[in-house]
Amino acid sequence: MAAKNTNMFSLIFSFIILGLAHLNLVNALSSKYYDQTCPNAESTITRVVKKAMLNDPTVPAALLRMHFHDCFIRGCDGSVLLNSTGKNKAEKDGPPNISLHAFYVIDHAKKAVEALCPKTVSCADILALAARDAVTLSGGPTWDVPKGRKDGRVSKASETRQLPAPTFNISQLQQSFAQRGLSMDDLVALSGGHTLGFAHCSSFQNRIHNFSSKQSVDPTLESSFAASLKSVCPAKNTAKNAGANLDSSPTTFDTRYYKLLLQGKSIFSSDQSLVTSTKTKALVSRFASSQQEFQKAFVKSMIKMSSISGGQEVRLDCRVVN
C-alpha cells in the first residue's frame, strides 16, 4: 500500500513539475524581451515584410499560414523553417506544407537582424513577428508580440499529419485545437486568418466533385458559388496553380470571410463546419457583424497560440540547426 501511495505521489509530483516547466516557458516570453539586447529588431523585421509585400501581395497570407503551421507542430519553434537533409524529410516537405512559400522573407529578416544583433533573435520570434506584421500591414490589428522563443532542432515531415485538415468536421477541429490548449473561441477567431489567401483545387475538390454517393456537390455550398468553383476546378483539373481566393478580398484583413461563411460561400469543409455548432455559429455571426469584436478576439487567440512553447537554441541560419 505504501509503495502504491509513493508511486501515486511521484506521478502527481511529476505532473506538477511538468506543469511548472510549461508555465515557466510561457512566462519567459515577454514583449520587452529584446529591449536591451536588440531594440531595433521589430522595426527591421517590419521593413523586410513591407518590402516583400510590395513585390508579392500573397506574402502576408503565406507568413500567417507559416506561423500557424509552425505552432501546431512541436510548438512555435521555427521547425517549419528547417530544410530537409539526406537523412531527414523536414516539415516544410510534408504534404500539407508543400504549398507554403515566402520562406525567403524570414531569411532576409534574419540576415538583417543578425547584422544588428548577432546570435540574439530566434527564427521562431522572427516568424511570430512577421506574422503579426502581415496582419497589420493588410489592414488588420496590431499587438505586442511576446518574445523569447527558442528554435527547435527537430523537424519531421511525418508529423505534419497532425495539422488540422481542410476536410475536418467540427469535432475533429475541436480535438485538434484542444490538444494544443486552444478553445472553441480560439478556433473561430483564428479561422478568421482565412480572410487572407488562396486555396488550390485539391483542398476543396471534395466539396464540388463526388461529394457523396447521392450528391455530386456539397449541399451547404451556395449553388452559384459552387458553379464558379467547378468552373475553375473541373473534375480532371490539370492546371497546377488553379484554385480560388479564400474570400472576396484576399489581401485585406477584414470580416468578409465570416460574412461569406454565413452565405454558404466558404471554401473549405472545415470553414463550413464552424456553422454546424450553435456555439461556433454564434461567434461567426458576431464576428461577421463587428470588425472590432473579431480583431479583439483574433489578437487574444494569436497571442495564446504563439505562446505554445518549444525549442532549445537561437539558430544562426533559419534553415539549418546550429
Task: Please name the defining characteristics of this protein.
322 residues; two-stranded antiparallel ribbon; 13 helices; 47% helix
Provide a descriptive summary of the structure in words:
By secondary structure, the protein is mainly α. The longest helix is centred in the N-terminal third of the chain and has 27 residues, at 2-28. It has helices at residues 2-28, 41-55, 59-71, 103-116, 123-136, 170-178, 184-191, 205-208, 223-232, 256-262, 269-272, 278-289, 291-305, and strands at residues 198-200, 243-245. Mean pLDDT is 92; it is low at 3-27. The chain has 13 helices and two strands; from the N terminus they run αααααααβααβαααα. The chain is globular, with a radius of gyration of 21 Å. The termini are far apart.
Helix and strand arrangement:
Layout: H1 2-28, H2 41-55, H3 59-71, H4 103-116, H5 123-136, H6 170-178, H7 184-191, E1 198-200, H8 205-208, H9 223-232, E2 243-245, H10 256-262, H11 269-272, H12 278-289, H13 291-305
Antiparallel strand pairs: 1-2
Helix pairs in contact: 2-4, 2-5, 3-5, 7-12, 7-13, 10-12, 12-13
Q: What oligomerization state is this entry in?
A: single chain
Largest sheet: 2 strands, antiparallel
Which regions have little confidence, pLDDT < 50, spanning 5+ residues?
3-27
SSE string, helices as H and strands as E? HHHHHHHEHHEHHHH
The total count of helices amounts to 13
Beta-strand percentage? under 5%
